[in-house]
Write a structure and sequence with these properties.
Layout lengths: L1 H44 L3 H11 L4 E7 L4 E4 L5 H7 L11 E4 L7 E9 L5 E9 H52 L14 H48 L6 H32 L8 E4 H18 L3 E5 L5 E4 L1 H17 L6 E9 L2 E7 L34 H11 L3 E7 L3 E9 L4 H5 L1
Parallel strand pairs: 7-9
Antiparallel strand pairs: 1-2, 1-5, 3-4, 4-5, 6-8, 9-10, 10-12, 11-12
Length: 453
């Protein structure tokens, strides 16, 4: 940053210096020409020896010199002795000189004088030229003073630029150093970092992004630990049953009915363990995007009717009324087998957590550009604090993980992924002792045949 600003300042100062010097030289030349024009006007009004003497006397007390010649080049007046530098200028060809005057030498670096010439014509006999000279040594002294001012201004600007760069770099690097330290901690597995957001610019956005990343990684770390702990618990329970009852079944003094009973328990626990592994395998497949989805256009009414008939006996057996509400002209792009898995899982939850003589409803409604399918029950409900986490893996509202109160806590996680992978969204609303409503929303698929007819 310092180098860039220094280069910009250097180029700007050089350009400004050249412009100021050029402007100052032009002012000197215009001043010379103006004095020559003034002397011309006096000569044209009153041309005599006293006028010439008066002009010479005036210029002898200034830093400029005047030489007046006739048209033949003869010197009529000189305020100073004519030297070689003046003679060189006086010998220049003056075929056409405008009345307002002419700059005949402007190179102050290479020549001894800068000079202008102005023609005068008081009558037909008395005519000639007024030459004005200024020693370039005086001009160089002027430029030297100007250079000193520029050098002082440059050093002053450089000083303030260094101070500004110092504090600006501190202001920029301090949050960057803080963010570097935070990312170093993140790389070492310490996700409980805090990155202060001190501004609303790009640095502030970067700090906020790092803080969000740290929070997300910290959450994932905790979720992973909870996931491993829950998996360990879920695996340990059936394995403990299998090992315990297998040891009992191996006893030689056990009669056949008891051994059969223990073997049946071992069989059930093996099925439970296999079911858990299947669900974990499905989640793993969805995480690596190897879960195949074959979507097709499905008439929603007949699809929901088949699901309704499949689960109706279970609801009837528990004395729960199951209703289906769906119009006939609704169509959706879904994977029928995967979406049936979603509905069966939600209906199984409704059956499991609803009491006798309640009502569960499968309801499909159409709104502008979308179709929603809701599973509404009158069950025990979900506490408000648990609602944001019901789709988390291995999360269960009933924390004891008792075998009689549900599955593994993977069903709703799989449901959410199956819905989202098919382009839908799922949400839940619930109140304690009033029931739960899961709502799935898909973009509507128009039936081309019906629309064309």
């Amino acid at each position: 940053m310092f180098v860039c600003i220094f280069l910009i300042e250097t180029v700007s100062m050089i350009y400004l210096h050249n412009k100021v010097v050029h402007s100052r030289i032009n002012q000197e030349l215009e001043s010379l020409k103006s004095r020559g024009n003034s002397h011309r006007d006096v000569l044209e009004i009153s041309y005599d020896n006293s006028t010439l003497h008066h002009i010479g006397l005036m210029e002898s007390h200034t830093d400029t010199d005047v030489v007046i010649t006739n048209t033949k080049g003869d010197i009529l007046l000189s305020s100073e002795k004519v030297n070689s530098g003046m003679k060189k200028i006086l010998k220049k060809d003056l075929t056409q000189v405008p009345r307002k005057g002419l700059i005949i030498q402007s190179s102050w670096k290479e020549e001894r004088y800068i000079a202008t010439v102005t023609p005068f014509n008081s009558d037909k006999v008395n005519e000639g030229y007024v030459y004005m000279f200024k020693n370039t040594g005086d001009v160089e002294d002027l430029i030297s003073q100007l250079n000193k001012h520029f050098l002082f201004a440059t050093l002053l600007l450089l000083f303030f630029m260094l101070i500004t760069i110092y504090f600006l770099s501190k202001a920029l690097t301090r949050p960057l150093i803080t963010m570097k330290e935070a990312t170093t901690k993140l790389s070492k597995g310490n996700f409980s970092v805090s990155v202060p957001v001190r501004s609303k610019d790009e640095l502030g956005e970067l700090a906020q992004s790092i803080q969000s990343l740290a929070n997300e990684l910290n959450y994932l770390k905790k979720e992973r630990n909870e996931f491993l702990a829950s998996i360990s618990h879920e695996l340990r329970t059936p394995l403990t049953y299998i090992k315990g009852y297998a040891d009992i079944a191996r006893r030689k003094d056990l009669d056949i009915p008891e051994r059969t009973q223990y073997l049946e328990i071992i069989h059930e626990e093996s099925k439970r363990l296999n079911s858990l592994l299947d669900e974990l395998f499905n989640i793993a497949r969805m995480d690596v995007n190897t879960f195949t989805i074959s979507k097709e256009t499905v008439p929603l009414s007949s699809f929901l009717q088949s699901v309704y008939e499949k689960v109706l006996p279970a609801f009837t057996n528990k004395n729960i009324q199951l209703n289906l509400e769906c119009k006939d002209n609704l169509f959706m792009d879904i994977d029928p087998s995967r979406f049936e898995q979603v509905l069966l899982n939600l209906l199984d939850n409704a059956l499991k957590y609803s009491n006798e003589y309640t009502v569960t409803t499968i309801k499909a409604t159409e709104s502008i550009g979308s179709i929603s399918i809701s599973i509404i029950d009158q069950g025990v409900g979900i506490p408000r604090a648990d609602i944001p986490h019901v789709f988390d893996r291995l999360y269960r509202v009933e924390k004891s993980r008792a075998r009689a109160t549900g599955g593994f806590g993977l069903g709703l996680s799989i449901v959410k992924q199956l819905v989202e992978v098919q382009g839908g969204t799922i949400s839940v609303k619930s109140s304690i002792e009033q029931g739960t409503c899961f709502t799935i929303i898909f973009k509507e698929k128009k039936n081309e045949d019906s629309s064309s007819s």
